[in-house]
Amino acid sequence: MELPFAESYRIKMVETIRKSTREEREKWIKEAKYNLFLLKSDYVFIDLLTDSGTGAMSDKQWAAIMEGDESYAGARSFYRLKDTIEMLTGLPYVLPSHQGRAAENVLFSSIVKEGDILPGNSHFDTTKGHIEYRKAVALDCTIKEASNTELEIPFKGNMDLEKLEEVLKTTPREKIPCVVLTVTNNTAGGQPVSMENIKGVSALCKKYGVKLLMDSARFAENAYFIKTREKGYENKTIREIVHEMYEGADYMTMSAKKDAIVNIGGFVAFRDEADMRKAQMFTIMNEGFLTYGGMAGRDMNALAQGLLEGTEFEYLETRINQVAYLGKKLDEYGVPYQRPAGGHAIFLDAKKILTHLPKEEFIAQTLGIELYLEAGIRGVEIGSLLADRDPVTRENRYPALELLRLAIPRRVYTNNHMDYIAAAAKNVYDRRESITRGYKIVKELPIMRHFTIELDRADR
Ligand SMILES: *Cc1c(COP(=O)(O)O)cnc(C)c1O
């Protein structure tokens, strides 16, 4: 018979996780002001809050940690990192940073000014935060198909090229510091961007003389989808595809906590030395000297090794198959989610589950709380809490999609855990009619409120 799929690694170290009772969880979530970010991790059985920094490092990464060079300047570990990034992407100038948003801060400090416009395919929340904080506009040009969760198309993260061209045509060039292409498109459901689309975006940038930034947290997962879904790429290696993806890029920011499988780290990479020179002062001011930028030497070593492992086909196949496995289970139970299954997460379609809950009561957040109460599983809201208020009118923004993201950490959980998650989602889905009351905001910060927001049950 045909041999079934099996993981391309085995387990060398384990960490105990504990179940809890529903009564305990009711108490804990209330104490956490109904904000899953404010829960102690010990109160969570399966933690799907994020796949960021939560992956399991390999034996080779731990070995690289021991070999870290902690020199303040010119550390060997920096050059190992820089050489790996250049080998993979062709971008030769690298500024390390402590994580992705710090990389954004360094780059945007040097290129974004008030009134600027940065078109992109669903900017990630910290990216948008850094743009709006500088009184610039993050203009969404994602293809409209991305907001139809039932539609199965292979590259749902794509940029709408017509819309992008319209923006580039009608906006003075000096007001567009760069176009932001996020691979994979996290906000739209971990959906990939095709090579054809990447090249289309890059051609438009060239045509209008605008720079291209690749927001690259999950660039390797994107390359995997290109290999397995796009014609002409079947026989290319992941690394060949990655190199091609970056051919038209001027800048790259990366949260290494995703596809580089480290617990902390990030960087900005540049094609032109002059662009790097403009930004380096902000690294020195905010992160550290140019050859460590907020990271220990050992962390840069683990990151360099993680970039190599993260771009191996067998690893990516194992990873993406696990997410797809959870998707298949949910199909069996009829639980609606953003289709097809994304690279790093399943996004439950909260509006299709809690159909009678008004949007003012935060539909996806309500679903997240219910899943936690049901089984001690922690997901994260990608909906109107995350969408925040309009920076000008201060009104709540209600996006087309209310999603509950179940992000799968890399090399951490087994498929038995996936079965458990799917069963819990089914139980919540089966009792959806009885979930009739959502939540209201009690306290919030003016920017990126979702991390610290305090909620209470909605008045009825
Ligand atoms: C995670 C992420 C970031 C921010 O990175 P942090 O390491 O969390 O600061 C930026 N863009 C994308 C697409 C991300 O997924």
Would you give an account of this structure?
This protein is an alpha/beta fold and 460 residues long. The mean pLDDT is 96. The chain has a five-stranded mixed β-sheet, with helices on both faces. The termini are far apart. It has helices at residues 22-31, 59-66, 76-89, 100-111, 125-133, 161-170, 195-208, 219-229, 238-245, 273-286, 297-310, 313-333, 350-353, 363-375, 384-387, 415-430; strands spanning 46-47, 93-97, 117-120, 137-140, 179-182, 212-215, 251-255, 266-270, 345-349, 377-378, 380-382, 403-407, 439-443, 454-457. Helices cover 40% and strands 12% of the residues.
List the helices and strands and how they pair.
Blueprint: H1 22-31, E1 46-47, H2 59-66, H3 76-89, E2 93-97, H4 100-111, E3 117-120, H5 125-133, E4 137-140, H6 161-170, E5 179-182, H7 195-208, E6 212-215, H8 219-229, H9 238-245, E7 251-255, E8 266-270, H10 273-286, H11 297-310, H12 313-333, E9 345-349, H13 350-353, H14 363-375, E10 377-378, E11 380-382, H15 384-387, E12 403-407, H16 415-430, E13 439-443, E14 454-457
Parallel strand pairs: 1-10, 3-4, 5-6, 6-7
Antiparallel strand pairs: 2-8, 7-8, 9-12, 11-12, 13-14
Helix pairs in contact: 1-14, 2-11, 3-11, 4-5, 4-10, 6-7, 8-9, 12-16, 14-16
The structure holds pyridoxal-5'-phosphate (PLP).
